[in-house]
Amino acid sequence: MWGHGVCQGAAPVTGGRLAHIVEGESDELGGVPVMQATHFFLGANSGRGFQSLFDRFCVPEDHHDLLVLKGGPGVGKSTMMRRIGAAMEERGEEVEYLYCSGDPASLDGVHIPRIRTAVVDGTAPHVVEPQYPAAVDRYVNLGQFYDIAAAKAARGEIVARSRSVSAAYQRAYHALGAARQMDDSAAALVLEGLDAGRLLRRTDGIIGREIRGKGAGGPDRLRFLGSLTCRGPVWRFDTAAALCPRIYQLQDTYGLAAPMLERLHAAARSRGYAAVVCPDPEHMDRVQHLLLPELELAFVTSREGMAFDGPAYRRVRLDAMVSQAHLKRCKARLRFTRRVADALREEGLEALREAKAAHDALEAVYRPHVDFAGVDEVVSQELERMERYL
Predict the structure, then answer these.
(1) Is 217 left (phi over 0), alpha (psi -120 to 50) or beta?
(2) How far apart are CA 306 and CA 226, in angstroms?
(3) How far is the C-alpha of 298 from the C-alpha of 1, rounded, in Å?
(4) C-alpha distances in angstroms, 204 versus 128, 187, 210?
(5) Which of 60, 74, 209, 345 is the most exposed place for a label (fewest CB within 10 A)?
(6) Res 35: pLDDT
(7) What is the dihedral of CA 356, 361, 363, 364, to 10 degrees?
(8) What is the pLDDT, as a whole number, of residue 36?
């Protein structure tokens, strides 16, 4: 069977808060703890290939200083972002860490919201280019610290290992695409037996009970709450719990939650509540998880491979809104599609592992030829600049 999601680096949930996420002092208005670190993804692996939210995050008008890191494997981009994030946390700043779907131990970005400053990896597959150079966004070229002569001497190995990385990702996306087709077939079959009226009534009941009052306004944020990675499915439900102590767990085996989440999101927007909207990597036009921090309220989809196992404020069994007679008639077909989809997804996961191994080998070729003292100097310079923004 397809495994449960992994909450990467998460500690057990206690009282709606997490031990490994540091809380700041209560604010003067409402006594609500300010969370100093949150964890999301801007990219995700899917049956449609690599899905990116970088274009929605790297809007230069939303930033005072947007650093776009350039430089290839092994040059220290993720390490630089991690050091900046840790330094800002030490200074009491809220920090948003944005993880790499290829390797969730690495970072694709770090964001310090209060000073409207972010650092992102601007290399493929999430290429970012400055639109207002120096005035808002700018390059930081870590590639200058390669020993070019040494890299050219290793050209043959670098080319071969780079091609191995690309080939492994292609195999992964082909397998995940086939798995997605099986999942979509099962979802369409189950949808025929859905009691849509019952789903609507349940949704409106939640809206009437939970989404009241008036929010402070402001834009929504788009983030992935997780992704399928070389380590399996990684879902940051710890961040959902940290931002939103009251969590509705939507138990949803067949992908029925999107209409409910979209209606909940529309109701929140109509009352001025800004949301963290987490799209489904397989269907980017659908909402998969919805966080409403101002209400301390979240709605998370939970199923095999994306299982929320923390304490839930409420549980909504969406599967129960499907005719049991219909499910019984479709049981054999659903079991078959599930078995095939699981096998295909496991094949995709194995290819992601191969891509990670090939990328590690590529980094190992480059790493001895990097001037890390020079990289450290750049990190120090950028931290000094950021401290002036505080």
Answers:
(1) left
(2) 9
(3) 28
(4) 41, 23, 10
(5) 209
(6) 57
(7) 140
(8) 82
Q: For 52, which DSSP code? A: E
Please count the residues of the chain: 390
Residue 22 pLDDT exceeds 70: no
Angle at alpha carbon of residue 114, lines to 100 and 94, rounded to 5°: 55
CA distances from 368 to 143, 148, 175, 358 (A): 14, 12, 35, 17
> Is the distance from CB of 173 to CB of 47 less than 8 angstroms?
yes
Q: What are phi and psi of 136, to 5 degrees?
A: -130, -60
CA dihedral sign of residues 103, 312, 261, 97: negative
Token pair, residue 87, equals: 């330094």
Rounded CA-CA distance 378/176 in Å is 39
Residue 47 has a CB neighbour count (10 Å cut-off) of: 26
Tokens representing residue 129 in the block: 């280019």
Which letter does DSSP use for residue 132 in this model? S
**Per-chain mean pLDDT for the chain:** 92
Question: What distance in Å separates the CA atoms of residue 13 and residue 158, rounded to the nearest whole number?
Answer: 44
Q: Tell me, rounded to whole angstroms, the distance of Cα 20 from its chain centroid.
A: 18
Are the CB atoms for 386 and 112 separated by under 8 Å?
Answer: yes
Report CA torsion sign: 204, 209, 215, 218.
negative
The pLDDT of residue 126 is above 90? yes
- Strands (E) across the chain are located at 13-14, 17-18, 23-26, 33-35, 37-41, 43-46, 49-52, 65-70, 95-99, 107-112, 117-121, 137-141, 221-222, 226-229, 232-235, 246-251, 276-280, 283-292, 297-302, 314-317
Stretch (H or E) spanning 116? none
* Cα separation, 336 vs 317, whole angstroms: 23
Cis status of the peptide bond prior to 125, with omega within 30 of 0: yes
On whether the pTM is more than 0.85, the answer is yes
pLDDT digits (tens, 9 = 90+) for 45-77: 999 999 999 999 999 999 999 999 999 999 999
